[in-house]
Amino acid sequence: MLLMNLEFFFFFFFFFTGIMVFLFNFKYLLINLLSIEFMMLSLLMNLFMNLMIYNYEMFYMMIFLIFMVCEGALGWSLLISMVRILGNSNLQNLNLLKI
């Protein structure tokens, strides 16, 4: 039981670290995308542990993985289009876009 609580603490710590990086390091879009992926990875590990402990099916994990991949592809496409339009990936330049 102590090992299970320790694993959940690590998953919470990973998720909290991703949130802190996302909130306090907002200069570049790539760093924010990586912190979001880190949070999603910690949620995926937590979901995997919960599904393994309670003997549920792994179908929900596949759905979550599909959403993670779609979110990552959308983030990369936004990053590429931002670099092509603005020339850099600084988040301070986003207020210059008046579309």
UniProtKB/TrEMBL annotation:
It catalyses: a ubiquinone + NADH + 5 H(+)(in) = a ubiquinol + NAD(+) + 4 H(+)(out). One of its GO terms (molecular function) is NADH dehydrogenase (ubiquinone) activity. The chain crosses the membrane at residues 6-26, 33-53, 59-80. This is NADH-ubiquinone oxidoreductase chain 4L. It holds the Pfam family Oxidored_q2. It is found in: Membrane. Coiled coil: none annotated. One of its GO terms (cellular component) is membrane. Keywords: Membrane, Mitochondrion, NAD, Translocase, Transmembrane, Transmembrane helix. It comes from Orseolia oryzae (Asian rice gall midge). Its main location: membrane. It is a multi-pass membrane protein. The keyword rRNA-binding does not apply. Belongs to the complex I subunit 4L family. The keyword Electron transport does not apply. InterPro entries: NUOK/Mnh_C1-like.
